[in-house]
Design goal:
Elements (H helix, E strand, L loop, with lengths): L1 E2 L5 E2 L21 E3 L6 H7 L6 H4 L7 H16 L1 H9 L11 H7 L8 H14 L6 H13 L1 H17 L3 E11 L5 E13 L3 H4 L15 H4 L2 H24 E2 L4 H22 L4 H10 L3 E9 L2 E10 L17 H34 L11 E3 L2 H7 L4 H4 L6 H38 L3 E2 L2 E3 L6 E2 L2 E2 L19 E2 L8 E6 L5 H15 L5 E4 L2 E3 L3 E5 L8 H16 L7 E5 L8 H17 L3 E5 L3 H11 L2 E5 L5 E3 L6 H8 L1 H5 L4
Parallel strand pairs: 3-18, 11-17, 15-20, 15-21, 18-19, 19-20
Antiparallel strand pairs: 1-2, 4-5, 4-7, 5-6, 7-8, 8-9, 10-16, 12-17, 13-14, 13-16, 21-22
Helix pairs in contact: 4-17, 12-15, 13-14, 20-21
């Protein structure tokens, strides 16, 4: 336990290292994709709704089996617990800071609530997790930590009450004071003052006028019939109005304490002294004018708010030199006439006093005409320590810096930000799960978590897979157009050759296998069923991009990249996928390159999936390398065997053969 300056105890909370989803993977832990430009990364991100989640997507494709298994457990929990998934999406942006507006703070820490919004979210998550079979070790650590943090809820409640008490003293005040001046332009005593102010926040006001109607007024019966219940309601309303009026009256400020007057007096003296030093010090006229102010007046307006105390000197009058007049009745003058003379003399005396005052003020104005006359035409921010102590003008953020509050607030903010980080990653994962399910529904695909096989096996197998990367192309169209891939045997250290019609689905099949393997090695579900695999270190891709230079050069360069990595790779942990092997070269050269490459891959016991339009190359692989060959029909069905490119069928179907007939 730590103690702050005020002696309040702040418990020490141990923060565990929790990594619900390792977002920073080292190159050694990442699944290597050779020829990355051939992998449709952007399409997958867009389909999964992750265009703006690159920090999360950057952690996809790993080869740490422990992390993959752990991720699967966490994702399964979120996927199959619908309420948890919805809650995490809704609450992914957990508020960390305390409300900085006073009214919002009072509402946030409403004593009528069991929990404030932050702690409500914590309790809701804990209640859900306690009802679920949580097996993920990191999530278990988070649940344990959150339970240990619950002791801070009462600490925060106590802190909030203390802050609200401090806020209850805050006030906005304005008014004016006129001081009599003594020697050397110093305030002497208050002649008159006017004060208008109110306390900004009031606990009594927040609790006033809230008595509900008695329960019996809501019951049906004879009392309702004879309007007695209405009398009860009127009486309750009257009592609430009285309480509210009393609370409002308690907020009024109609006078200034001695401490506040001293603050204003000190500040006024300081302002006058600055003016005196700058304008009339050590001058003959200045000394004469200063003497005339002895017994004069200074009037200031003041305003006190969240910005502090501000003063405006709006009047400064020297002492008028008034001659005395005798108001005795003249001798031998009738009483009535004598009154007229006395009235006349009094009027002359008043005019004389005004004239002398104007002359004195004119002397000051004359002295200032080339000086700082604006001094009397602006507000001045002044120090007000006594004022501050009584009316707490400082804003709510400053209260959090109070030595009594700061250690507790800092500890709570640290806790809130830690929890917010965990809520954010869980919310992102819940959104990802929700997007996966929505995408699966749109393309008509099952969504399942794959089986992870031990490293001793070398298999990538599935019952059916859906080409998820085609979803964007089919948006708004019939989802039935996305045909699943079936009837392919496992890729298990041997070769599969794909042949057949152009546009039959060979390239789509190859990309679909690569994408779902990448999803599986991200700890995510795959789009299909019956998927099982052993962890791969490398996926090698060779796809020719038309219109990007020589296709022959692309083919050779990409093959070279794979062969370089193959030298240092474990054959059980690499999958090579080659599209249209031999394309872009003369058929004889393509056949020769294809044979040499397939022989090398076979010798290394590498799992290979390749497609080709060169039937002799597919036949060579079947006859000499133990490959299995499958052909794709125009309707995307897959059958065993070596298929031709389908040119004959295409010529006949489109009627080209008839046009090619040469008449004798």
């Amino acid at each position: 336990m730590k103690k702050n300056k005020a002696g309040s105890a702040v418990p020490v909370l141990e923060y565990p290292e929790i990594d619900l989803w390792k977002r920073k993977s080292s190159p050694e832990d990442s699944l290597q994709i050779i020829n990355k430009e051939d992998f449709p990364f952007d399409q997958i991100m867009e389909n999964l709704g992750l265009e703006c989640r690159r920090s999360l997507a950057g952690s996809f494709g790993i080869r740490d089996i422990t992390e993959i298994v752990r991720r699967q457990e966490l994702m399964k929990l979120i996927m199959y617990e619908r309420k948890l998934c919805e809650f995490l999406i809704k609450e992914k942006n957990l508020a960390t800071d305390f409300p900085q507006d006073h009214n919002s703070f009072i509402q946030y820490h409403n004593p009528d609530r069991v929990h404030n919004p932050f702690w409500t979210r914590i309790h809701e998550l804990l209640e859900m997790l306690d009802r679920m079979p949580v097996r993920d070790a990191e999530l278990v650590k988070l649940r344990t930590f959150l339970k240990s943090s619950l002791k801070f809820e009462e600490i925060e409640r106590v802190m909030a009450r203390r802050i609200i008490e401090k806020m209850d003293a805050m006030a906005v005040i304005e008014g004016s004071i006129t001081f009599k001046l003594g020697k050397a332009l110093n305030t002497d005593k208050v002649i008159r003052k006017q004060v208008y102010g109110y306390r900004i926040y009031s606990l009594s006001l927040s609790n006033a006028g809230k008595q509900p109607y008695p329960a019996w007024t809501k019951q049906a019966g004879c009392m309702k019939t004879i309007k007695i219940t209405r009398i009860g309601e009127i009486y309750t309303d009257w009592r609430n109005d009285q309480e509210l009026a009393t609370a409002l009256k308690g907020r009024e400020i109609t006078d200034l304490s001695e401490e506040m007057i001293r603050d204003i007096s000190d500040a006024t003296n300081l302002l006058l002294q600055n003016w005196d030093d700058n304008r009339i010090k050590d001058t003959e006229l200045g000394r004469e004018i200063r003497n005339r102010f002895n017994g004069g007046i200074v009037s200031v307006s003041f305003a006190y708010s969240i910005e502090g105390l501000k003063l405006h000197i709006y009047n400064l009058e020297p002492t008028p030199e008034i001659r005395s007049f005798s108001y005795e009745y003249p001798v031998c003058i009738p009483r009535r006439e004598g009154k007229k003379i006395i009235t006349m003399r009094a009027r002359i005396a008043t005019k004389t006093e005004q004239f002398i005052r104007q002359m004195n003020a004119g002397a000051v104005a004359y002295f200032l005409k080339d000086g700082n006359i604006e001094f009397f035409d602006k507000e001045h921010r002044v120090s007000s320590s006594r004022f501050d102590e009584e009316h707490k003008h400082f804003a709510l953020p400053n209260i959090f810096k109070d030595p009594e509050i700061k250690p507790i607030a800092d500890a709570l903010l640290k806790l809130r930000r830690f929890c917010a980080d965990q809520f954010e990653i869980l919310g992102q994962l819940a959104e990802l799960v929700s997007n996966c399910k929505a995408l699966a529904d749109r393309i008509g695909s099952p969504i399942t978590f794959p089986e992870i096989l031990p490293d001793s096996q070398n298999i990538v197998a599935f019952e059916e897979l859906f080409p998820v990367h085609l979803a964007l192309q089919n948006r708004g169209a019939d989802s039935g157009k996305i045909v699943p891939i079936r009837r392919l045997p496992p890729v298990n250290g041997s070769m599969l050759a794909l042949t057949g019609a152009h546009g039959g689905g060979k390239t789509v099949t190859e990309l679909t296998l690569a994408i779902n393997l990448w999803l599986a090695q991200s700890g995510l579900p795959v789009f299909g069923k019956g998927f099982k695999f052993n962890i791969k270190d490398t996926i090698g891709l060779v796809f020719i991009n038309r219109g990007e230079g020589s296709t022959c050069e692309q083919l050779v360069t990409k093959i070279m990249e794979i062969l370089v990595v193959l030298k240092v790779s474990d054959h059980k942990k690499i999958l090579v996928i080659i599209d249209e092997l031999g394309t872009g070269t003369q058929e004889e050269s393509g056949l020769e390159l294809g044979r040499d490459l397939l022989k090398k891959l076979h010798a290394e016991h590498t799992s290979v999936l390749f497609s080709t339009q060169i039937t002799l190359l597919a036949q060579f692989a079947v006859d000499n390398l133990g490959a299995q060959s499958f052909m794709f029909a125009p309707d995307h069905s897959i059958l065993p065997g070596i298929g031709k490119g389908g040119m004959e069928d295409l010529r006949s179907r489109l009627g080209v053969d008839k046009l090619l007939l040469v008449e004798n």
